[in-house]
Amino acid sequence: MDWLDEIKWDRDGLVPVIAQERGSNDVLMFAFMNREALQRTADLGQAVYWSRSRARLWHKGEESGHFQQVHEIRLDCDNDVVLLQVTQLGHQPGIACHTGRHSCFFQRLEQGAWRSVEPVLKDPVSIYR
Q1: pTM score above 0.85
Q2: What are the two backbone dihedrals, phi and then psi, of residue 8, each rounded to the nearest 5 degrees?
Q3: Nearest in space to 102 (alpha carbons), one of 114, 83, 86, 113
Q4: Are the beta carbons of 115 and 106 closer than 8 angstroms?
Q5: How far apart are CA 49 and CA 32, in angstroms?
């Protein structure tokens, strides 16, 4: 059996993926992959996702230069969520979020309202020209 066949793909042929920073264990982002994206990720050693909004493969960093070097690919106990352990490349400290922040999870619920608790490391206008 092919290792990709062991994954429980959703009805759209996708699997949720969490990108976690190697070393700090920060959760950088959440995305989806289809079979081709996961196969390319394994082959390249860099994260390739499925962009639902663009309906195409998306090599993380193709526009921003903020690539993700993949060190490890893990599958959860139900075979329906993938965890990538990555090093965020392209800017130090690493920028994973299109808002110019280290992590996409920069908002924290405080007293009934969402508050941004992580700084913008680089203006997104300068990242995406």
Answers
A1: yes
A2: -90, 95
A3: 86
A4: no
A5: 6
Tell me: the pLDDT tens digits for 49-85? Answer: 999 999 999 999 888 888 999 999 999 999 999 999 9
What stretch of H or E contains 66?
none
Rg (CA), the chain: 15
Question: Position 56: which residue type?
Answer: R
Q: Which residue has the tokens 């990709």?
A: 4
Amino acid at the residue 98 = H
Residues 6+ apart with CB under 8 A from 129: none
The token duo for 10 is: 């959703």
Query: What are the structural domains of the chain?
Result: 11-120 (3.10.20.810)
Residues 82 and 69 sit within 8 Å (Cβ to Cβ): no
